[in-house]
Amino acid sequence: NRxxxxxxxxxxxxxxxxxxxxxxxxxTKIELVERLAQTGLKxxxxxxxxxxxxVPQMANSSEILEHVLRTPPRAPHPITYQFLLPNAKxxxxxxxxxxxxxxxxxxxxxxxxxxxxxxxxxxxxxSFQGSNPTPSAPSGADATGKDRGSTSSETxxxxxxxxxxxxxxxxTQKNTNCSIAESLKRFEPIMSRAKELDLNxxxxxxxxxxxxYEGPNVDPHKVAELAVSLLEMGADxxxxxxxxxxxxxxxxxxxxxxxxxxxxxxxxxxxxFHDTYGQALVNSVVxxxxxxxxxxxxxxGLGGCxxxxxxxxxxxxxxxxxxxxxxxxxxGVNIEKLSxxxxxxxxxxGRTNESRAGKATLxx
Length: 364
Ligand code: HMG
Ligand code: MG
Hints:
Blueprint: E1 7-10, H1 12-16, H2 26-37, E2 43-48, H3 61-70, E3 80-84, H4 88-108, E4 158-166, H5 169-176, H6 180-196, E5 200-206, H7 220-233, E6 237-242, H8 249-261, E7 269-273, H9 280-290, E8 294-297, H10 317-326, H11 335-349, H12 356-363
Parallel strand pairs: 1-2, 1-8, 2-3, 3-4, 4-5, 5-6, 6-7, 7-8
Helix pairs in contact: 2-11, 3-4, 7-8, 8-9, 10-11, 11-12
């Protein structure tokens, strides 16, 4: 029964680092990705193919992609790496690395053995139990029901693409220099190429619960309309993002109800909370109660969007893992190991470790 499994998408290496002003050596970024892969996290957003003029910190994402394609993860399970891209140029830059490495990858990785069956998961000890309509996933598949490969560490990593638009015109202009309609147009060639290459695509909808330019009252129907359009275009998952952290429990509940009423399946939704107002955990519980089982987070609470002034980091992965474990849900993540990574990267960046559960775990 996979109903109690919560999938965490670790966005620290991308969302977490993109806003850092000091140049972070690529070796540190790669070490972060490697260390995260050893904590039990199975999905890691590792970089982005955006304009280096707009986001200089992500300029060396090609090297990270090359690294993850070349180097088998030192993890007892396969890892899915995601890369963000805004347009066809980003896709071209991604593909030039991915295609040159993919033949080498086939040489490096042996054929994976058949996966063993997943063990029975514990049940949630709260009212969340049974609230998730997601059917049991087959062995080798994650909570989304998609095949994520075998459990051999010799398995080649799976690569997914992330595209992004936003629920307000102003934010879309500030972030990607185009209108919402133009952003969807830009996704068409990305989506068709991704389908040809059998790559999954996740689509973010930013400012879903508040916009730094248009205010806190973003129309949930606009978010739902965009989610439906993106799914119709072929997106495999929608990450609904509270970029500004303006989301509250009632607003989150209203948005999730609006998405359901528009026909968006809970299993197609991920929630992406920034914790600017300290509401990310309570909003996550609302999401969990609603049946959402995929959540984005950044180790150490790193992060922020350069085009969302004042917004702080993502919800800390350690805090989210602690919350889910306290509710009897399974994440597969070792919180001690994860907390060490959060403390390490915070020190590397000269930042305060923003994870309360991480600091408390290390102090035990
Ligand atoms: P633009 O300046 O309008 O682009 O930027 P353009 O098409 O006019 O091209 C201008 C130049 O940029 C050209 O080069 C292009 O080749 C180049 P030139 O001829 O001058 O030498 N270019 C590129 N170079 C590398 N990679 C590319 C690329 N595209 C064009 N992909 C653009 C438009 C979309 C590129 C720009 O606005 C951009 O890169 N924006 C990305 C902003 C960003 O990364 N934001 C943060 C990520 S989103 C986020 O954090 C939110 C999220 O976490 C969810 C949430 O919390 O809300 C996901
Ligand atoms: Mg974000």
